[in-house]
Amino acid sequence: MEWRDEGIVLAARPHGETAVILELFTREHGRHLGVVHGGASRKKAPALQPGNQLDATWRARLESHMGGYAVELRRSRAAMILADPLRLAALTTTTSLCAFALPEREALPDFQARTEALCDAIADGEGWLNDYVHWEVALLEVVGFRLDLSRCAVRGDANDLSYVSPRTGRAVSRAGAGDWASRLLPLPDILLGGPATLPGVVAALNVTGHFLKTSLAASLGDRPVPPARDRFLAALGREG
Known about the structure:
It is a single chain. The chain has 240 residues and is α+β, with helices and mostly antiparallel strands. The protein has seven helices and eight strands. The strands form two sheets. It has a five-stranded antiparallel β-sheet with strand order 3-2-1-4-5. Strands 7-6-8 form a three-stranded antiparallel β-sheet. A hairpin with a 3-residue loop joins strand 1 and strand 2.
């Protein structure tokens, strides 16, 4: 068995003395693992940092085997942002959440392309905060937890949407919330297409974070959401 693809490094874990198990989010084969012999060496290790873009050839005797990768670096995003703790935290969170949430060996070409675009935006430093917020919304949808922010779950209209139901993920208007407002999550403007202000970004990530923990993590046997995400939120807090 053999295929060639391009993808984002999600993780590289030690395997024996010199090899690593490389986890890639590839364009045509989804989240896929393979062994890189000599991956822990000084020559190969820098290319295998989370967020980097690789050309990869995967080979195995049988499709069910883990197999091995031969890889070539296409873009070293991680090295571009080592001096920027906030962007580095964002890139690390992106790759950690992909490794945490995505099914193995399931092609997700649209979401993979969106993830590549986000990683490029983080590396380039242009518009990435807005992209990241909406990427988390898309991540929830791709794993089966879609937020419905199009109209009020109570009244059925799209006027003055102000809250999100923590149970259903549906929007609720101020009038529809009534006495239940204190039990609902605030709906920041950025999730409705508004500007990406820092307070709005943090508020939006509190909304998506609620569903990452109560819906996604619960569906995965209550595995904890990767701590990289909390570190990213802490870094955002320091920016304020």
